[in-house]
C-alpha cells in the first residue's frame, strides 16, 4: 500500500497520490444521497469549507446497498459547524463530533483528523495508553491527513461535493470490487489503537459479504484479549451492532471461530463448551436465527429477549448449583439471575431496562412449566407472557423436554372461557405451602422450604 525511502537512516513512508474517480466512472448519484446530507454538504461548501461524504455510505452505495447513515468529513472544526447550523449539537469526548439534527435524521459531521504524531504531541489532545487511543481531537486540514486515521480501506472513500468524484488514497475501490476487507496500515498497531476494530472486522465481513484480507485476519485470534480493555458500556453498543444487523447468526459463528465471543460473554462460552448434548448451543443459534428473520421481515425485536437466550446456558448452570445447595426452585432462579447478570455486566454492561425484562422472561419459565391452576389465567394478562411463551417454545425447539407445556399453553390461549375452565380443572392441584404462625421466626441458617 505504501513505498518507503531512507532518510537520515530512518524509514519514512511515501504515501501514493490519490486515485480520483470522476462522476462518469462510478455509480453514485446525488439522488441516492439523503437530502439532509446534501444540505449539510452544500452549506459547508458555500461557507468556504471542504466537504465530503465519507465512510459507510460511500462504501454501501458502491456495493449497491442502501446506506443507513450519511456521515460527512470536513476541515471545519466542530464549533465552526455549530455556527453554520442552529440544529447542531456537539457530542463526544474521545472523538469530538457535530450532530446536525433534521427531525429523526441525524447527519454526523467529523473534522478531519491529523495523522501527524509531532502535531498531536505539540497540541496535547491525543491521549494514548499502551498503543490504544483514548482521545483524539487533533484536527487535520485535508483528506490526505484524515484518510490514514480511518480503519478499513472500504471505509476510507470520500465523495467530493465539489465535482461529484470519489477520492481514493488506499485502494478502497479496488478492495470493494475484489470483495475484500483490509485494514489501513499495520494490522497489529491498528487493532491495538482501538481493539473494537476486531469486532468491526467481523461485523463488516458478515454484513457486507466480504472476505477478510489475510493480513487483516491473522492477528484477530491472537489479540482478542485486548477487548478486555474496552469499557463495558461501549462493548454493549458494539454487541447491539453485531446482533441486531440482520446477520446475527453468521456473526456469532464468526465470533466463536475467531475466539472473540468468549471475551464478550465468558460465562456463556464456558457453558456452551460444557454443554454435552448441544441443547444450549442450539438454543443460542435458534434465537439468533429468529432475530435475523424478524429483522428481515421488518418486525420489532427486543435486545432483552436476545439476552435472555444468550445468557440462558450459564443461568441453568447457576440455578442447578444453587438447587444443589438446598435452595428451592424460585430462590435458586433468583440467585442464579443475580450471579449471571452481575458477572456479565463486568464485560458487557447491559442496561437495567433490558435486564429487568430478561429476568421477567426467565422467572416466568418456571411458572409456565408448573401450570398452576390458580395462576394460569392471570398469566395470560402478564405483560411479559408472550415473550416468555415464545422463549418456552424456543427452548423446546432446542431440545428441552417441554412439549407438554408448550402444547398446553398454545391450546389454552386459543380456547374460549368455558374450555379454559375445563383445562384448569384437569390440572393436578399444587401442594399448599405451609403458613408460618404469627410471631414465629425462621431459625438463622435454616434451609428454605418450598
Q: What overall geometry do the principal axes of the alpha carbons give?
A: elongated
Q: Provide the helix percentage.
A: 40-55%
The CATH architecture name of the largest domain reads Orthogonal Bundle
Ends distance = 69 Å
> Which superfamily, in CATH terms, is the homologous superfamily of the largest domain?
cca-adding enzyme, domain 2
Query: Number of DSSP strands?
Result: 14
Determine and state the CATH class of the largest domain. Mainly Alpha
User: Treating each run of at least 4 consecutive H or I residues as one helix, how many helices?
Assistant: 22
Gyration radius, to the nearest Å?
27 Å
Strand content: 5-15%
The secondary-structure class comes to alpha+beta
Order of neighbouring strands in the sheet with most strands? 3-12-11-4-5-8-7-6
CATH topology of the largest domain: cca-adding enzyme, domain 2
> How many structural domains can be distinguished in the coordinates?
3
Mean pLDDT: 89
Main pleated-sheet profile: 8 strands, mixed
Low-confidence stretches: 1-12, 118-123, 441-450
Description:
The chain is an alpha+beta fold. The chain has three domains: 3-178, Beta Polymerase, domain 2 (2-Layer Sandwich); 188-230, no CATH class; 234-422, cca-adding enzyme, domain 2, CATH 1.10.3090.10. Helices cover 48% and strands 13% of the residues. The protein is built from 22 helices and 14 strands. It has helices at 35-46, 56-62, 78-84, 117-123, 143-146, 172-177, 187-193, 196-208, 214-217, 232-243, 248-257, 261-264, 266-274, 279-296, 303-310, 312-324, 329-345, 352-370, 376-379, 385-398, 403-414, 417-425; strands spanning 3-7, 10-14, 19-21, 51-54, 71-74, 88-91, 97-102, 105-111, 126-129, 132-136, 157-160, 166-168, 180-181, 211-212. The strands form four sheets. An eight-stranded mixed beta sheet has the order 3-12-11-4-5-8-7-6. Strand 6 (88-91) and strand 7 (97-102) form a beta hairpin. Helix 13 (266-274) crosses helix 16 (312-324) and helix 18 (352-370) packs across helix 20 (385-398). The longest helix has 19 residues, at 352-370. The chain is elongated. The N and C termini lie far apart (69 Å).
Amino acid at each position: 500500500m505504501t513505498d518507503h525511502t531512507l532518510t537520515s537512516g530512518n524509514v519514512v513512508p511515501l504515501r501514493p497520490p490519490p486515485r480520483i474517480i470522476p462522476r462518469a466512472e462510478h455509480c453514485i448519484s446525488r439522488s441516492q444521497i439523503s437530502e439532509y446530507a446534501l444540505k449539510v454538504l452544500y452549506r459547508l461548501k458555500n461557507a468556504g469549507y471542504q466537504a465530503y461524504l465519507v465512510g459507510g455510505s460511500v462504501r454501501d452505495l458502491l456495493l449497491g446497498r442502501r446506506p443507513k447513515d450519511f456521515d460527512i468529513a470536513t476541515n471545519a472544526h466542530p464549533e465552526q459547524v455549530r455556527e453554520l447550523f442552529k440544529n447542531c449539537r456537539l457530542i463526544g469526548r474521545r472523538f469530538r463530533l457535530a450532530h446536525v439534527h433534521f427531525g429523526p435524521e441525524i447527519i454526523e459531521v467529523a473534522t478531519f483528523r491529523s495523522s501527524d504524531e509531532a502535531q498531536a504531541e505539540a497540541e496535547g489532545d491525543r491521549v494514548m495508553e499502551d498503543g490504544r487511543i483514548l482521545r483524539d481531537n487533533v484536527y487535520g486540514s485535508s483528506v490526505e491527513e484524515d484518510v490514514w486515521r480511518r480503519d478499513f480501506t472500504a471505509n476510507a472513500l470520500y465523495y467530493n461535493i465539489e465535482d461529484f468524484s470519489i477520492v481514493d488514497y488506499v485502494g478502497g475501490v479496488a478492495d470493494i470490487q475484489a470483495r475484500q476487507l483490509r485494514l489501513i496500515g499495520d494490522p497489529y498497531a491498528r487493532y491495538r489503537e482501538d481493539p473494537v476494530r476486531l469486532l468491526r472486522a467481523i461485523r463488516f465481513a458478515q454484513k457486507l459479504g466480504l472476505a477478510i484480507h489475510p493480513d487483516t485476519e491473522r492477528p484477530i485470534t491472537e489479540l482478542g484479549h485486548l477487548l478486555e480493555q474496552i469499557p463495558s458500556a461501549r462493548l454493549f453498543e458494539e454487541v447491539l451492532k453485531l446482533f441486531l444487523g440482520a446477520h446475527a447468526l453468521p456473526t456469532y459463528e464468526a465470533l466463536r471461530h475467531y475466539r472473540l465471543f468468549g471475551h464478550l460473554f465468558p460465562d456463556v462460552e464456558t457453558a456452551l463448551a460444557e454443554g454435552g448434548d448441544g441443547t444450549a448451543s442450539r438454543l443460542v443459534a435458534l434465537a439468533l436465527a429468529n432475530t435475523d428473520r424478524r429483522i428481515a421481515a421488518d418486525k420489532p425485536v427486543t435486545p432483552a429477549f436476545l439476552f435472555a437466550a444468550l445468557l440462558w446456558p450459564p443461568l441453568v448452570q447457576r440455578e442447578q448449583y444453587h438447587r444443589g445447595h438446598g435452595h428451592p426452585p424460585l430462590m435458586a432462579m433468583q440467585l442464579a439471575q443475580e450471579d449471571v447478570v452481575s458477572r456479565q455486566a463486568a464485560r458487557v454492561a447491559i442496561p437495567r431496562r433490558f435486564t429487568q425484562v430478561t429476568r421477567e422472561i426467565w422467572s416466568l419459565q418456571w411458572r409456565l412449566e408448573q401450570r398452576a391452576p390458580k395462576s394460569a389465567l392471570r398469566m395470560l394478562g402478564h405483560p411479559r407472557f408472550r415473550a416468555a411463551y415464545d422463549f418456552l417454545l424456543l427452548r423446546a425447539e432446542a431440545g428441552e423436554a417441554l412439549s407438554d407445556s408448550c402444547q398446553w399453553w398454545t391450546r389454552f390461549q386459543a380456547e374460549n372461557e368455558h374450555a379454559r375452565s375445563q383445562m384448569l380443572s384437569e390440572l393436578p392441584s399444587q401442594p399448599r405451602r405451609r403458613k408460618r404462625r404469627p410471631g414465629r421466626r425462621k431459625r438463622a441458617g435454616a434451609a428454605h422450604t418450598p
